[in-house]
Amino acid sequence: MLHIAIISGSIRTGRKSHRVAKYFNNYITQNNLATSEILDLKEFNFPIMEERLINLTNPSVNVKLFSEKITKADAVILVSPEYNSGYPAAVKNAIDVLVKEWFHKPIGIIGVSSGNFGGINAIDQLQTILMKIKASPISTLFPVPNVQDAFDEEGNAINKEATDKRAASFLKELLWVAEAFNKMK
What we know:
Order of helices and strands: EHEHHEHEHEEHH
Number of strands: 6
Distance between the termini: 16 Å
Largest sheet: 6 strands, parallel
Shape: globular
Number of helices: 7
Number of domains: 1
Mean pLDDT: 95
Strand content: 15-25%
Oligomer: single chain
């Protein structure tokens, strides 16, 4: 069975995008699609990157653990909020600290915002960055507008039927790409 790492990209107090990470973790488990785990950047609490992991002489335990979990994952779901038409520094920091771990890693990007556009600017920027580092972002997007009205604190979708339908399509492509890449290893 495939394993999916779900990166929860907000470290802010009162964050709402973590609800979406919880939703996907629950959805994957409940539908027996893969194994999954949330990699919460708030819990990892990385220092600002001074150097990539491969060049560090004494990396932190959390940076090494994050590297191991990304390496182990067959695919990654990156849940990123959008702040001021971009993604947060914590997400960029987590991406930049690794190198080889991202190579040909299938990644599904979820953009989250409290406004009407669902983090589409952050998604666009992240696709460009991830392709630059030779990761493999999938083409199916999952923007979440008005997140405060779309998910409760526990990650339950308010409009479950519509959200589940979108999630099924998003995950179908991510899992297909992950399976294809596994066959090429």
